[in-house]
Design goal:
Length: 229
Amino acid sequence: MQKWGTSTILIESGYLPGDPEKQNNRQLHFAMFLEAFQNIADNQYLFESLHEYHEIPFNQRRAHDLIIRGLKYPYQDKYPVIDVSWQRTETFRSDYRKGYYKATISDIGDLSTMWGFDEFDATQYDYVEGKILKGAWKEMQHMKVIDIIRSGHSWILAKSQPEQEAASNLPLQVILHERDFKNDIKISRNPGFFLQQNGQLKVYIHNGVKYDLQELANILGDKTLADFY
């Protein structure tokens, strides 16, 4: 809108859990503007103190989109217990008409002083690294997405370029070159992995979002890879 020359007011207010599109915040902002305009029209703002405003604490980077706590991560033949957090940022496609969220690991270690909009206790689960499915796109495009995920895959290496960009809600990462397969847990990476319990995959972590595999199966149904393009 600013590129159009439209005057804008930027309101930095974060978002509420379960509302990444900030629909609830928009309602709060509308009510806030009504109240502000009424106070301006009635000159009530002249009698308001700025004390409460200056008491608002400065932002601190303690909030994350997702925190997995108590993860037993295999490292050099040992299993240190760590917390892992993700931050999601909105990115736009090449035509700038549609946006999607891309997550990266924001912190690793003891995150007991941090909090997440979504948190999960992984102390009773085992870490399972996501695998990469390789093949020609024409051969894979009719595979059911949930079958790919249930077989332990979180990445797809396509030997040929799909005709269109994948939809942002495809719960798999699609790459064209094996050098782009970076699935270890490190800062600024975006790995896909599973949490296993009693030998069964129960939880899937993809793009900074935690999925219960049974719930994900209900959502995906019989959708194939081609359905997301």
